Structures are given as structure tokens and as C-alpha cells.
Amino acid sequence: MGVAASGMNASVVLLAVVALALFWLRTPVESLLGTTPMKAQGREERRAVWSVVLALSGVAIASLIALMWGGRNIALLPLGGIAAFLFFVQTALMRLGRKVRMAAQLIGAAGLTSTAAAAYYVAVGHFDHRALLLWVANWIFAGNQVHFVQLRIHAARAGDFGEKFLRGRVFFFGQIAVLVILAAAVSSRWLPLLPALAFLPVLTRGFYWFVARPQPLQVRSLGWSEMKQGIVFGILLTASMILS
């Protein structure tokens, strides 16, 4: 939203490079730490992974230095510190096993979506309630996606509404909680109505799954579908924030 309001600039581009480099860095780092099923095996494989880690780290550090050169964008430091702490907590939780994997993913999503607030700050030049709103809105959306994908995987064989509700009741009531939170935020005027409406497609998708006819799980198709949901949400949220 900040980009659309003030125009693309070099700082926004540099922040995008930093964010992408750090995002791509997660997988090779996790493979080295052994916190995911895909682990680097053998000396040659670990050496190749280290090469990727060093290359991406170099790009991120160089872009970050340019972004903050001359004391500019200095407020990104505490925000980056919060994101780094969240990723540390996520990594620690992932080492505890699958029982806390959902919580770990939600905490990691909070770290990832901090880039929404960072992008607003870099584009506009200051933090305000809209930066926090963008962070929270994107985190809620990401959390919904994380939970829905996990539900689809673990409830792939669920048939009618009863079976689906039995397996997905936490997700179902979570969606209702999101609706209540959005209604409260709009009624208190903390959130304009139009940005709240950006959640309708993803919430409709979630509720519809409970009444839809059972279909075999296709992970690739699910991934593409959720990517489309993310694009639609991003477009609607950005447009609604500008108009409101």
C-alpha cells in the first residue's frame, strides 16, 4: 500500500531484494540445521548448501547496507530484530517434533509478514497504525493458509460434513473468530470496512470446504490454489487500503 501511495523507489527495491534473499535462505539453513525432513547429506551436499547460504547472505547483507546507508531507514533494525527472534523461536519449536509444528509455522509466519510493515515504512518514511494493521492482516491471512493446508493434508480422507468438522473444528471456529475480530475492528473504526472485505475470498474458501463434495487431495493443485488466494488477498488489501 505504501508503494502505491508514494511510488516505487530504490529503497523499496532494496527491501524486496533483502526479503527475497532471506526468504530463500530459510530452506538451505533449515537443511543444515536438520529441522526439516530435507536435510543436507554428505560432505559434497553440505558444501553445495553452504555455497548457496553464503551467496544469499552476501546479497542480503549488501542490499541491507545500501538500504540503511547514511542512517536511512534505521527503524528497520528493531523490526528486523523482532523478526529474527520469531524465526529463532520457530526453529527451536520445530526441534521439539510434529506436535508443535503448527505453532512453529504460525510464529514463522509472523516473522515473514513483518515485511508488510517494513515495506510500508520504507515507502512512506514512517511507522503508524497502518503499518501495524498491514502486519496483523497479513499474519492472520498467512495463519489461515497454514492451518487450511495442514487440515487438507490431515483430513484428506474425510467425507461428509460431520467427518470434516470432527477433524477441522479448530479451523472452523478459528474462521469464525477471524470474522468476529474483523467485525470488532471495523465497528471500533480501527479497521476500515474495505480492507476487512479483502478476507472474504479466503474465508469463503475455508467454509466451503466443509460442505463441498470430497475430492482426492492433489498437493500441487492445492499449492497453486493457495498461491492464487494470496495474490487476490494482496491485490484486494492494497486497493482497499488506498481507497479507504
Description:
With 244 residues, the chain is mainly α. It has a domain at 128-244. Helices cover 79% and strands 0% of the residues. The chain is built from eleven helices and no strands. The longest helix has 27 residues, at 161-187.
Rg? 20 Å
Mean pLDDT: 86
Low-confidence stretches: 1-7
Largest sheet: none
Give the helix proportion (percent range): over 70%
Q: N-to-C terminal Cα separation, in Å?
A: 11 Å
Structural category is mainly alpha
Outline type: globular
How many extended strands? 0
Produce a short descriptive summary.
79% of the residues lie in helices and 0% in strands. The protein is mainly alpha-helical and 244 residues long. Helix 7 packs antiparallel against helix 11.
Name some characteristics of this structure.
244 residues, mainly alpha
Layout: helices, strands, pairs:
Elements: H1 2-6, H2 10-33, H3 42-67, H4 76-94, H5 101-112, H6 114-124, H7 129-154, H8 161-187, H9 193-197, H10 200-211, H11 219-243
Helix pairs in contact: 2-3, 2-6, 4-5, 4-6, 5-7, 6-7, 7-8, 7-11, 8-10
